[in-house]
Design a protein that fits this description.
Its cofactor is NAD(+). It comes from Candidatus Woykebacteria bacterium RBG_16_43_9. One of its GO terms (cellular component) is cytoplasm. Helix 2 links the parallel strand 4 and strand 5. The chain is globular. By secondary structure, the chain is α/β, with parallel strands linked by helices. The strands form four sheets. The chain has a seven-stranded parallel sheet with strand order 3-2-1-4-5-6-11, sandwiched between helices.
């Protein structure tokens, strides 16, 4: 477990006058370049990355000082993945796990999760907020042939299992995105890339292009398989980012674009270009391996015509800049981001409801009156019931926690978490509130309070579960190995509690605008937050790493 000395307050820097983009995989190779480009286009940018695969804080180090940039270390695969409702969004970019050829079974599983659970979480957020969702995928989705007996042969004889995971994962992510477009009217666009390269690219992911660059940089022999005629479509990173940004500001709902250099290069041609740039590097040919699947045709015309995109950076120029960056030199070059014309999609106007003023029979009038009464009063009633239930349960949970009754604390905190979540849904169901501006503001701030309360409850629940594991471990005579496993499990629960508190502290609440009955709840929750923070920090320092 990676222990921290204290819980950091998680805050997002945004300006309400500018569009705000959430970039999943923002600390990766492509993601960090996208963050830079969006900032130059006057976006607020939130880079989200769990730093477990290809992301690195080094990639975004120079962006951290920007007032419009925030970094959020979080895992989009979590079932309880959430973003504070006080953080405005206009765009969501999904570039997590775009790196190919991952190098272990564990990372292969991570690829599947990011492109299934992670994609669903981000799509749900996009639908909830009514914002654009841009999935960055790969042409690897085209690989494969159906087998009736095994998935191992989808991608050819002796296929790399990690490559299988990547291709199937991206195929599923695209299918899920298309389904959300059809079934939920989500504003989705899919961008496919192939053979990306450029500054900050990782040489550890096993891509053929990366391997050749690494061999050239190390002054080793550049080894080519067979006759070196295997072809690639090297596409420079700034060209790819230009296409992604252009797709994001246009109205391309439901579209799929192949942002790929149409010019093919053989392995030999790439190796010879590297040889000319670096010099003193020998090219050798290895014995031909397993038969490769024939390449598939790339359809580029729609991208060039509809998106108005084409690559600008030549292979020689791109490799020179990549090598210069990887050597640690500075290479000044401004990204070519064209001015995008056209109006932004601002959504559909609200429907106008017409009333029928004609006389109707008494029974219909009575029925409509009862129905109207039900619609107007039920959501507020459910809202206040949930607030009362949540407040009572979180109070009982805190008492149980202080009394070392951890199982009871967990049970009460779960009830509080569910009640506060239900209250948020009820507050959104009061459709007539916008006609009363003061009430609308109060409901919005109360919704923020309930989101805060939900995460305080979740922190209490996870902390209780962690403490319960520790208590059980102390009561039993466990071997050192078993004890270590139990403490690790407890530590993970405590880490999750810390994450819940981070999310809770990101919420901004205007106390003066809260509904009158909720001001006392906020004060109690603030007190709970301080006590939880102190206890979690103490536990993190005492538990083994």
């Amino acid at each position: 477990m990676e222990a921290a000395s204290k819980i950091e307050k998680f805050k997002i820097n945004v300006s309400s006058k500018q569009p705000t983009a959430l970039v999943a995989g923002g600390a990766g190779f492509l993601g960090s370049h996208l963050c830079e480009s969006l900032l130059s286009q006057q976006f607020n940018v939130i880079a989200l990355d769990n730093l477990s695969v290809s992301g690195s804080k080094k990639n975004i180090e120079r962006l951290l000082s920007s007032p419009n940039f925030s970094f959020w270390e979080e895992d989009i695969n979590k079932p309880d993945f959430k973003l504070s409702p006080t953080i405005p969004l206009t765009h969501i970019f999904h570039l997590a796990s775009i790196e190919e050829h991952l190098s272990s079974d564990k990372l292969s599983l991570q690829t599947l999760l990011v492109n299934s659970l992670g994609t669903k979480n981000l799509l749900d957020l996009a639908v909830e907020r009514g914002v654009k969702f841009i999935l960055v995928s790969s042409t690897e989705v085209f690989h494969g042939a159906l087998s009736q007996t095994s998935v191992d042969n989808y991608f050819g004889k002796a296929a790399d299992p990690e490559q299988v995971s990547f291709s199937e994962a991206k195929r599923f992510a695209e299918t899920l995105t298309a389904e959300y477009f059809r079934s939920h009217d989500a504003q989705t666009t899919i961008i496919r890339v192939k053979d990306p390269y450029g500054p900050r690219m990782s040489l550890d992911v096993g891509s053929p292009l990366g391997q050749m660059i690494e061999q050239a940089l190390n002054k080793e022999r550049i080894e080519l398989t067979g006759d070196g005629l295997q072809t690639y479509n090297p596409t420079f990173v700034t060209d790819i980012i230009f296409g992604i940004v252009k797709a994001s500001v246009g109205n391309f709902n439901g579209k799929i674009f192949n942002v790929i250099n149409p010019e093919k290069y053989t392995e030999r041609a790439i190796a010879e270009t590297l040889q000319k740039i670096i010099g003193g590097v020998e090219i050798v040919f290895k014995k031909k391996g397993d038969l490769q699947l024939s390449s598939y045709p790339l359809i580029i015309n729609p991208t060039q015509e509809q998106l108005g995109w084409e690559p600008k950076v030549s292979l020689r120029q791109g490799l020179e800049e990549t090598i210069s960056n990887l050597k640690g030199e500075t290479f000044a070059r401004e990204a070519e981001i064209a001015q995008t014309k056209g109006k932004r999609d601002v959504g559909q106007p609200k429907k106008q409801f017409k009333t029928n003023s004609s006389l109707v029979r008494r029974i219909i009038i009575i029925t409509l009156a009862v129905l109207l009464f039900w619609i107007l009063l039920l959501p507020p009633a459910v809202l206040f019931t949930n607030i009362y239930s949540g407040a009572r349960n979180i109070q009982n949970a805190e008492k149980s926690l202080k009394g070392d009754n951890f199982e009871s604390a967990v049970d009460q905190a779960k009830k509080a978490e569910n009640a506060f979540n239900g209250g948020q849904n009820s507050s959104k169901s009061i459709f007539w509130a916008p006609f009363l501006p003061a009430l609308s503001d109060s409901l919005k701030q109360t919704g923020n309070l309930l989101f805060y309360a939900e995460n305080i409850s979740a922190a209490t629940k996870n902390l209780g579960e962690g403490l319960n594991i520790i208590e059980e471990s102390e009561e039993k005579q466990l071997s050192e190995e078993k004890l270590s496993e139990k403490l690790l499990k407890a530590g993970l629960k405590i880490d999750q509690a810390a994450r819940n508190l981070e999310i809770a502290t990101s919420v901004e609440i205007e106390e003066g605008k809260l509904l009158p009955t909720t001001s006392g709840l906020l004060a109690d929750l603030k007190e709970n937050e301080a006590e939880l923070t102190e206890l979690i920090n103490a536990l993190k320092q005492s538990l083994p790493n």
